[in-house]
Amino acid sequence: MERTESAVRANTGPLAGRIALVAGATRGAGRAMAVELGRAGATVYVTGRTTRDHVSEVGRSTETIEGTAELVDEAAGAAGRGIAVPTDHLEPEQVRALVDRIDKEQGRLDVLVNDLWGGDVHLDFTAEKQPDLWEMDLAKGLRVMRLGIESHLVTSHCALPLLVRNPGGLLVEVTDGTEEYNRRYRKPLFYDLAKAAPIRMVLGLGEELGEYGCTAVCVTPGWLRSEAMLDTAFGVTEENWRDACAQAPHFAISETPTYVGRAVAALAADPDVARWNGRSLSSGGLAREYGFTDVDGSAPDAWRYLLEVESQGRPADVTGYR
User: Is the N or C terminus of the chain more exposed, i.e. has fewer CB atoms within 10 Å?
Assistant: First the structure.
């Protein structure tokens, strides 16, 4: 059905006309960021390795980039749309081809989100004791480095020339943990390095991008109720997620992927986003700044809670934290 002029006006949104690339948008936070950018009116290129014809080493076949693109379309209404492009971001030629396609089709890139990961399958967080460096499988550890660091560098190297073509561009590096929280050692070493690196990346890239009128920030969700966290780690659904608190009481501070998706959309729509340049930000902190909430109307501040309650050995109590 042809869209009427009034329908277009009604569905433009604050990011109408903007072009975004969410690298690593198959599931979890990346999928939610793509959807919320689309909901705000952006056209969003969504990439990843799992498609309806191919499953990555993560092994979750029901979560695909085509599925994400469809969710973006649904959320975007008449303004933006989702475009799925299968891409292995460890392969520079594939990333260059992706960026060339965006340039040819859109002529610009306004938002780049590096949410590339997939390293959890090479780590065992259920172990009673995390291994020392020399006890780890070296091949798995180096794979974690490639997935969590090298993929981000390859993508930024290829995509930032298009982003800096116009002032106002935004680079979002996604990690786990704020700068303050990640000052502690988050064993094993390969995981610690992978999650500290994006914070350091934006410190440098903030300086480099600032010369072109663009901004780099690092964003972390809190304790994320991702698909894998719900169905694999705890055996629950989004509808009964609180049942998992019997196993992990501090899970009461957890949040949906939509929460960090709204955080990134708010950043992208902020005309004064440059005030955050080079900074480490969290979904909870940005909720206080921009006034959005999670889907249940709460505003969890997970990293403040984890520092002040969980790490201090205090009993689980989210009063004042969501």
Answer: N
